[in-house]
Amino acid sequence: MAAIAISLIDVTKTYIDRTVVDRFSFAVEKGECFGLLGPNGAGKSTIARMVLGMTPPDAGKITVLGAPVPAQARLARASIGVVPQFDDLDQEFTVRENLLVFGRYFNMSTHQIEAVIPSLLEFARLESKADARVAGLSGGMKRRLMLARALINDPQLLILDEPTTGLDPHARHLIWERLRSLLARGKTILLTTHFMEEAERLCDRLCVLEEGEKIAEGRPQGLIDEQIGCQVIEINGGNPHELRALIKTCAQRIEVSGETLFCYSSAPEQVRIQLRERTDLRLLQRPPNLEDVFLRLTGREMKD
Ligand SMILES: Nc1ncnc2c1ncn2[C@@H]1O[C@H](COP(=O)(O)OP(=O)(O)O)[C@@H](O)[C@H]1O
Ligand SMILES: [Mg+2]
């Protein structure tokens, strides 16, 4: 059996009268990238905070790198790197100063920290920014600095809470590439995201969650095959409810979300034939993805 880095068993968190994480269980194996995928408010950050021992659960059992959490969270934290959801860099300090201050939290000497700074800057592609103030960095650079900072204690486990939210596509791709290089080095990653594409590209396995409950778990492609398993045609431009009647005989399933009709079909050419006279429509045929899985399981899109 693979070694387990994080284990949650029936973990529940309630705020006043609202259960925001409900009997949640999962196990992250060492060396894998495990995702928590869900829309805003699903409970992702709450789970990440409980794993870090920053928020106590009301019930259930959490073990991180062999230590019971929150009881021995400090022990586990020494081997964990964290990128919180919101930027908490010291804006007035330079890049180098931020790393120096952070290293001291791990009881590293100035000498020890200075010895690792060049490789961290290289990792984050911030070599030329060492003496720049954080306030002047782009969003992508700040996120890369937070990632470099999380690596200062050479952690075996990384907990990344929405590491690319708010970044442009180029900056996002650069973070993905950096995360893949960490996985290649054998690091374990727990990643939260509301980007389907990010989860699909990076995660070995993931949980899909909604309102504190796990609604699916597995490998991204496994979930897609299991839940969808056919082509998708997105149809825009017509009245989705009228269109439904036209194509229902050649579709396994039809979902309407906003102005788009999602047609799931193993015979997409038949759907096109049915609609060939309708030049007013825009049809996009594509393979299924995790967005379709979420739509199938919840009846709504995850996109904000
Ligand atoms: N300290 C808190 N007190 C009360 N409610 C909270 C607190 N933290 C989070 N919540 C609520 O818990 C739910 C889950 O939040 P969160 O874990 O931040 O979700 P996500 O990270 O998936 O967006 C939300 O409805 C949020 O409003
Ligand atoms: Mg969050």
In words, what does this structure look like?
The chain has 304 residues and is an alpha/beta fold. The chain folds into 2 domains: 4-224, 3-Layer(aba) Sandwich (Rossmann fold); 230-287, 2-Layer Sandwich (Alpha-Beta Plaits), CATH 3.30.70. 35% of the residues lie in helices and 29% in strands. The protein has 11 helices and 14 strands. The protein has helices at residues 44-51, 73-77, 95-105, 110-123, 139-150, 169-184, 196-202, 220-227, 240-247, 268-274, 290-298; strands at residues 4-15, 18-29, 33-37, 59-64, 67-69, 80-83, 157-161, 188-193, 205-210, 213-218, 231-236, 253-257, 260-265, 282-286. The protein has a 6-stranded mixed β-sheet with strand order 6-7-8-3-9-10, with helices on both faces. The chain is globular, with a radius of gyration of 22 Å. The protein starts with a strand and ends in a 6-residue tail after the last helix. The model has no long low-confidence stretch (mean pLDDT 95). The structure holds adenosine-5'-diphosphate and magnesium ion (MG). Adenosine-5'-diphosphate binds at residues 15, 20, 38, 40-46. The site of adenosine-5'-diphosphate has 10 residues, from helix 1.
Summarize the structure.
It comes from Sinorhizobium alkalisoli. The chain has 304 residues and is an alpha/beta fold.
